[in-house]
């Protein structure tokens, strides 16, 4: 089995971090490769960023469809996920959808820890899209707009507030740049902390093994 992870942004540093976490999870069970999106912004923060990333993401899928069994979109807002589901017969999994739906199975409620306060409304919109409002306790960001996913402290503090004040029971890491932080944070917090990249791979691997992919009868029917 071969799974291709698409990093919707163009950051090589984030792409490398995603690949490390993905390879640790995959081990010898399957092959995983991570590709940054050509022509995309360095970060996906706004809807304009998602639009700019779309052509490159489509090209990655078209160029690699024959060589890979599934695709994972490694950005927690799942940019252009519906678009990619329409253009390929391979399973396409977004790490936002995968991580939050898995979180709903592991506790009464979950909270998403966002990379920065500016992205909280976007996370809330995605939660509503997936009909998860009833099991989402909150979306929390760092106390200050500390947008640096390489430093754990502010995000650990945000998660602690979610557990204590919002009564969350599971924490979802709301940025692909947080890849590799979940295990350490879980040990400190004493609750499940979900890495979106790992969750995306869990779902993609299962879909491939079961032989399931996206229905094309109506919503995702090709043009």
Give an account of the 3D structure.
- This protein is an alpha/beta fold.
- The protein contains 8 helices and 8 strands.
- It has helices at about 10-25, 45-65, 80-85, 95-105, 120-130, 155-165, 180-190, 195-210, and strands at about 1-5, 30-35, 70-75, 90-95, 110-115, 135-140, 170-175, 195.
- The strands form 2 sheets. The chain has a 4-stranded parallel sheet, sandwiched between helices. A 4-stranded parallel sheet has the order 6-5-7-8, sandwiched between helices.
- Helix 5 links the parallel strand 5 and strand 6.
- The longest helix has 18 residues, at about 45-65.
- The radius of gyration is 16 Å and the shape is globular.
- The protein starts with a strand and ends in a 13-residue tail after the last helix.
- The mean pLDDT is about 95.
Describe, in short, the structure shown.
With 223 residues, this protein is of the alpha/beta class.
Tag the structure with descriptive keywords.
single chain; 223 residues; alpha/beta; four-stranded parallel β-sheet; 8 helices; 8 strands; globular
């Amino acid at each position: 089995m071969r799974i291709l992870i698409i990093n919707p942004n163009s950051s090589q540093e984030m792409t490398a971090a995603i690949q490390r976490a993905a390879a640790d999870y995959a081990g010898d069970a399957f092959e995983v490769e991570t590709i940054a999106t050509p022509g995309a912004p360095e970060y996906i923060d706004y809807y304009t960023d998602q639009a700019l990333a779309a052509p490159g993401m489509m090209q990655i899928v078209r160029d690699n469809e024959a060589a890979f069994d599934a695709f994972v979109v490694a950005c927690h807002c799942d940019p252009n996920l519906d678009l990619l589901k329409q253009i390929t017969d391979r399973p396409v999994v977004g790490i936002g959808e995968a991580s939050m739906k898995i979180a709903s199975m592991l506790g009464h409620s979950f909270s998403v820890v966002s990379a920065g306060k500016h992205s909280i409304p976007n996370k809330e919109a995605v939660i509503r899209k997936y009909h998860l409002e009833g099991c989402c306790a909150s979306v929390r960001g760092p106390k200050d707009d500390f947008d640096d996913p390489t430093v754990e402290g502010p995000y650990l503090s945000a998660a602690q507030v979610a557990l204590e004040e919002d009564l969350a029971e599971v924490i979802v890491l709301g940025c692909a740049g947080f890849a590799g932080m979940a295990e350490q944070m879980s040990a400190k917090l004493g609750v499940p902390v979900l890495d979106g990249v790992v969750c995306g791979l869990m779902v993609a691997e299962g879909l491939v093994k079961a032989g399931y992919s996206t229905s094309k009868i109506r919503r995702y029917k090709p043009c």
